[in-house]
Design a protein that fits this description.
The protein is mainly alpha-helical and 257 residues long. It has a domain at 43-48 and 137-243: Cytochrome Bc1 Complex, Chain D, domain 2, CATH 1.10.760. 46% of the residues lie in helices and 5% in strands. The protein contains eight helices and four strands, in the order H-H-H-E-E-H-H-H-E-E-H-H. Strand 1 (93-96) and strand 2 (105-108) form a beta hairpin. The longest helix is centred in the C-terminal third of the chain and has 34 residues, at 223-256. 21% of the residues are buried. Keywords: Electron transport, Heme, Iron, Membrane, Metal-binding, Respiratory chain, Signal, Transmembrane, Transmembrane helix, Transport. GO terms for molecular function: electron transfer activity; heme binding; metal ion binding. This is Cytochrome c1.
């Protein structure tokens, strides 16, 4: 019986060690911490950077990835005016209907429409991408540990050749920060993938920083409003505390005398 117990304990330790190892492998490498404009108590989004990031998303990312929670009119939040939003929406067609004949039809998108999916369905998306369905990017910055740091690291973490001893599966690319290090998505950015309207040089690093900022805004568009509300609450609590302290001193001053 004692021998059985010792064997069971040893097996449990082995399983725990294996689970920890597997978990660490699945989590991947911790990405380096970056400095972002929206971090900190007084941090805000850089509207120019967000617009550049939208250019990168629209030109590169949107060819494979959907953005199902983003409506064209939401782009007002990154500084586009009504006419610009209408012009951007007019570049797309969306499915609508049914019409009076009971048939679906396509029409030019309006500001109230959401960004159309680049593929008809997930099966079509997988078929066009080697069997892997490109994930929706609406909440990617919140869905992954380390959020924007992970996105930035992933987009800059490709290596031309896998380390010695690492056998790559067909159709996979080595990425230092992807959990299994083998990712189906080829390197998406090479530099000069877009021509920025504000004249900024479109280096790889610049494109990665800009699109990461845009994806974080998509996931947390209320971040600035939340911080502003937090500041108001803090100021209210400070004033309330001072008032309560003054009332307390006045009341106890009468009692003590």
């Amino acid at each position: 019986m004692r021998k059985f117990a010792l064997t069971a304990i040893a097996a449990a330790f082995a399983l725990t060690a294996f689970a920890n190892t597997s978990s660490k492998a699945a989590e991947g490498v911790v990405p380096p911490a970056m400095e972002w404009s929206w971090q900190g108590l007084f941090g805000t989004y850089d509207r120019a950077q967000l617009q550049r990031g939208f250019q990168v998303f629209k030109t590169v990312c949107a060819t494979c990835h959907s953005m199902r929670y983003l409506a064209f009119r939401n782009l007002e939040g990154i500084g586009f005016n009504e006419d610009q939003i209408k012009a951007i929406a007019a570049e797309y067609e969306v499915q609508d209907g049914p019409n009076d004949d009971g048939e679906m039809f396509t029409r030019t998108a309006k500001p109230s429409d959401h960004f159309p999916h680049p593929f008809a369905n997930d099966k079509a998306a997988a078929a066009a991408n080697g069997g892997a369905t490109p994930p929706d990017l609406s909440l990617m910055a919140k869905a992954r540990p380390h959020g924007p740091d992970y996105i930035h690291a992933l987009l800059t973490g490709y290596e031309e050749e896998a380390p010695a001893g690492v056998e790559m599966a067909d159709g996979k690319y080595y990425n230092h920060y992807f959990p299994s290090h083998q990712i189906s998505m080829p390197p998406p950015l090479y530099g000069n993938d877009v021509e920025y309207t504000d004249g900024t040089e479109a280096t790889v690093d610049q494109e990665v920083l800009d699109v990461t900022a845009f994806l974080n805004w998509i996931a947390e568009p209320e971040l600035e409003a939340r911080k502003a509300m937090g500041m108001k609450v803090l100021l209210f609590l400070i004033v309330l505390t001072a008032m309560l302290y003054a009332v307390k001193r006045k009341i106890w001053a009468k009692i003590e005398h």
